[in-house]
Amino acid sequence: MNKTPKALQVMPASSARQRGAALIVGLVLLVPVTLVATAVAERNILDNRMAASQRDGMRALYIAESGAEQAIANLMANGTWQVFNDVLADSDNLGLNQVSFGGGAYTVLLVDNDDGDNDPTKDSDGRVILRALGNFGAANREVAVAISRQGQPSEYAILTNKHLKINGNMILTGSNSNVHSNTSVEIPGNPQIAGVVSSCGSVTGNHPNDRKQPNADLVDIPHIHPPDFRNDANFIFTPDCRVRLPDGSLVADLSSGGKWHGWDCSNNDKWTMGDSSPSGGLQNGFIYVEGNAVISGSPTADWSLTLVTEGYIEVSGNPNFEAFGNHATDPDATSLRPEVRDLLFVAGNDLKINGNPSQKFHGVMAAHMEVSVSGNPNYQGRIIAENGTGQQVTTGQEPKNIVDQNEFSGNPNHINNRVSPWDPVGIRRLAWRESI
Known about the structure:
The chain contains three helices and 32 strands. It is of the alpha/beta class.
């Protein structure tokens, strides 16, 4: 029997139609599935791109914030009160342009705020704005940080935390001849003060009303902590009556008596210097005393001295002082840190000045506790009283308070034209926002 080959067999029409319909249905169903799959894939790609963009944006923001913090650190390290003006007037500004950091880079600019002086290169109110731009990949973020200085400006010739009494006939002149107390000022005498007398409380007494500023803003006063300056000293006076170098080497032993360049340690509660013409001459230098110091007499030569004590300092007689750091020909003086070169006296307790230093009495004079000036001293520089609660460091000599309140009496002549480098500048963050 002859059979038709399978390959040549003709499919029934109904079966072919069924299979064709199934193919069409399958194709129709495949289209939306394909569209859904494509949409899902595109969504995943978009999500990944968005996530990557968000991650890059966050990194760019962190880089911008890091740039702002670096700028603040640089401003603080500058160490001068005029730092904002210095930067604003510099064509290079902060010098932070496309600084590589964290796989990206930041650029930071310091710009003046709207302080009313219409001069973008001059800061008039101690407040400026940091604009920090960070970039990572294609992402850019900018933050704006409003900052202000935190420290005490050199414009104050006399600066105290607690009540200040100005008696007698003090004459205070110079370009930085203002007076301020963070508590109150009482002026029962007849001083001639060229500048403004301000206080966070009241200002009473004899001073022109147009130069009185009661209820003024608080002025930040640095913490007077003598050990901060110990490593700057050339000589260290110890409570056991020995003079040592900073490395501990012995220079002089006065425990059994004797003097070293006029310095005497026979009174076990203080070091004293009263010789007008000491054997060996006056010892210029930066002296750190682990205790108290008293200087009297009338040395015949100018004395380049910085005296830092853990206790009190009392000065009388007619000495002629200038801060050791201003001794231009002494390599030990010129190598001092800039912020300590203008220091004359720093007391961990009280500072008491009496007498008639008629020629040179130049430098910053500061006390952790109270300051008293009487007699007819003639001095140039600044006086600062932190008015702390008590002597912080005792290493053997008896703590003793020799001043009850901040007071100026007699007829002192005070000139302050100095802009001291000893203005520890901090930066206070006032506001922060993301710009882009």
